[in-house]
Structure formats: C-alpha cells, structure tokens
Amino acid sequence: MGKIATATDIDASGGGPGPVGVTADRRAIGPWARAWQRFRGNKLALGSLIFCGLLIVLALLAPVLAPQHYAETDFANLLAPPGQGGHLFGTDQLGRDILSRLLFGLRTALTVAFGAELTALVFALVIGLVAGYVGGRVETVLMAFTDVMYAFPAYLFAVIMVTVLGRSVFALIIAIGIASWVTQARLVRAQVLTLKEREYVEAARSMGAGGVTIAVRYILPNAIGPILVTTSFAIPAAIAAEAGLALLGLGVQPPTPSWGAMITDGTRNLLSAPHMLVFPAFLFALTLLAFTWLGDGVRDAFDAAGEERG
C-alpha cells in the first residue's frame, strides 16, 4: 500500500497546507514576539538600543566612574585642554573635570527625561482611558481640557512651571511632564474608542467585569504598542527640553551639571577652550540621535506587526 501523505509531508513538499502552517506559526508567536523579530532585524535600531542601554548604565554608575566629583576644582589647570593635568576631557573655566561633569550631566538628563515621561504617561493614561471608555459628558469635559492644553505652547508652559516651582530636578520633571502629556492622551483615547467595541471586551462585559477591570485588564494591554512608540519619541524630546531650559538659565541649580549649561559655557569659551563645547555638544547630539533611531525602530516594528494582524 502506498504511504498516506501527512500534513507534515505536505508542508515539507510545498503543498497547499503550507501557508496555513506558516500563518498558524505566526499566530502562535504572538504580536509582541513578531514586533521583536522585526526590531531585531533593524541593525540601526538594535545598535541604538544597545547604546541607550550603555548610557543608562553610565548614568547609574556616574559616582563610581567619574574621575572626580563634578564640583571639585583644580585651580592649577583652569581651561586645561584634554589630557592635561590628568583630565582626559580637559577642564572648564573653574577647573572642574569635564568628563566627570558629562557623566553626572547624563544622569541629570536621563533622570529628568524618564521622570517627565512617566509623569506625562500617567496623565495621558488616566485622561485617555476615562475619556475613551466612559464617554458622554465626562469625555467632553476631559477632551475640552486637553484641547486647551494642546493650544497652549508646551515650552512656554514648562518655563512658567519651572519659574513657579524653582530650579530643581523635581521641578523640571513636573514641568516637562505636565507640558507634554496631551498628544499621548489623545492617542490613548483613540485606541480605547477602537478597542472597547471588540468581541473580547463585550465578552468580559457580559461576564460581569467592571469598567475599571475592562479598561485596565483588557483594553490597556492591547493599546500598549502605539503608546510605547510615542513614549520612545517623547524621551529624546524631554532630553532636548531639559537642555533648552538650561540654555535659558532655568535648568538645575549650579553646580549640578547639565548638558545645556555645559553647552552654554562652551559657547562662551569657544575660542579659548573649544573642548568645553565639543564634548558636551557631541554627546548630546549622539544621545538624541540614538533615542530617535530607537523610536524609529519601535515604530516600524509595531506598524509591521499591526499590518500582519490585519
């Protein structure tokens, strides 16, 4: 008797059921795993992720890695060029080690950026979820408030907040976070409006699940992808906002290092000590590029995953 062809044989021979098996494998992998596969295939995004991870490690270990304390002065080596007096990146106009100040400035930048984005995300999730799920008059009021905030210049609002709260890391986090939640809140609301009519939400509602449970357990996890994309772009924007406020003299109080303040000092001493501008400006630009390329990779990965689900 002839051998009966199995499904495995048909798939291996390139027969009809093959694409069905491929589709089943894709569904078994899941959208998050597919997004990671797409992201991992983007070498620029993967390299940016590794570089951003390295920056975070350097910021956490700044007290250990810094050759000196960021406020320690060396009056024998004022405006010393790189390598002089044991200062690898040179010193500034007060004799402070630039490498040490770069490491602690990185810590300041990432603390403000991640803290501000967390603050913005909390506002966005609360307002977006409530407005999208509850609807009615609550949605009208919340979205009217969101529109008012959207119309107000975010940077000007941050300047006002820092002026009122004072110049500190906490004040910068609150100021930048409150000034930047609007776009994400509108995105969250749009996602909720789309997802709350899905079958699994209706099934949860019919089984007696409450509104909070449905919003947090069933809707929010399925909206994480687009939210993660906007978050990845919001972090470099927060880093730039912190530096911009420092350029205006509204950053953290001296002598706490800030890349914006270091760039300002570098421009004032550009002719006599160009290294004061070159090192912080280069690291600042490289950090923004890395986080932006990381955001591009996350966006492309989730967009592709969404198209495959469609």
**Name of the CATH class of the domain at 107-252 and 289-309:** Mainly Alpha
Helical region count? Answer: 15
In the predicted model, the low-confidence regions spanning at least 5 consecutive residues are 1-26
The 3D shape can be described as: elongated
**What kind of assembly state do the chains in view correspond to?**
single chain
The strand count comes to 0
Calculate the mean pLDDT score and round it: 86
Q: State the CATH superfamily name of the domain at 107-252 and 289-309.
A: MetI-like
* Residues in helices, as a percent range: over 70%
Question: Gyration radius, to the nearest Å?
Answer: 25 Å
Q: Strand fraction band?
A: under 5%
Please give the CATH architecture of the domain at 107-252 and 289-309: Orthogonal Bundle
Structure commentary:
This protein has 310 residues and is mostly helical. It has a domain at 107-252 and 289-309: Orthogonal Bundle (MetI-like fold), CATH 1.10.3720.10. The protein has 15 helices and no strands. Mean pLDDT is 86; it is low at 1-26.
